[in-house]
Amino acid sequence: MIKGFYTAKASLIQRQKYTNLIGNNIANVNTVGYKKDDVNFGQILANHVREEYHDLSTTDYFVGGGAKICNISKDFTQGSLIQTDNMLDIALNGTGFLTVVDELENVYYTRVGNFSLSHTQSGLLNIVTKEGYTLVNSNMRRIEIPSNVREINICEEGLLTYQDNRGSHSLRIVSFSEDKNLEQVDSGIYFSDEIERIDNQTKVKQGYLEMSNIDLASEMVELITNQRLFGMNSKVIQTVDEMSNLANNLRR
Where does residue 180 fall: left (phi above 0), alpha (psi -120 to 50 degrees), or beta otherwise? Predict the structure, then answer.
């Protein structure tokens, strides 16, 4: 009975973690560029038990330790695109990522395209995310634009032009063979140890934003299912407790 208690307890804890994860997905249903968190469940190490009887026969069986969350990964399925008509809003139609850098020139990747302009000490303008990461061009240099620029144009191939095409930069768009290995370091900002490759297939849509890829109906179904499993494990703990009390009372 005690084993049943600990098995149910282990599953209960994991189900609570999954409920929190689903709640976080639902809370970000309207967040620009948010990617769904996915989980994979696995079995906790089972114990091998051998029962021996008076007639010298034996019975072997395994007692499971419950379920656990093996890993949490991002689902990079593309979200829906909405039109904003803001010249600094960039959506990617494809599997690629924009390349950005931080103040120490560390390289990161993002699909969150609500950029803004930031003044530099030299008087030029950088294109930055709301977290402060700077967009770079195909030569891995920070994109710098004169402060008097009033209009910026970006074509589908990622060529950024300004001042009647007198200045230009090519956006650095990359993709990965296994994007699930990307590590999130900030809101919509990812890091990878994997060598990226230049992505010429992903198209850029200026004046659009990619919304989250959360399917609210699916998340609600998952939440209801998970709550029922949580309730089942709670009932197991209650039943084990009642059986223990019954066994204790029989001794009197």
Answer: alpha
Residues, the chain: 252
Could you give the C-alpha distances from 178 to 98, 172, 198, in angstroms and in order? Answer: 16, 19, 14
Distance (Å, whole) CA 86 – CA 207: 5
What string of DSSP letters covers 160-226? EEETTTTEEEEB-EEE-S-GGG-EEEETTEEE-SSPPEE-SSPEEEETEEE-----HHHHHHHHHHH
Residue 190 C-beta-side C-alpha neighbours within 13 Å: 27
pLDDT in tens, the chain (252 residues): 566 667 777 788 888 999 999 999 999 999 999 999 998 876 665 666 677 777 777 787 666 666 778 888 899 999 999 999 999 999 999 999 999 999 999 999 999 999 999 999 889 999 999 999 999 999 999 999 998 888 999 999 999 999 776 789 999 999 998 888 899 999 999 999 888 999 999 999 999 999 999 999 999 999 999 999 888 888 888 887 777 777 777 765
Cross-strand pairs, 100: 108, 135
- pTM value surpassing 0.85: no
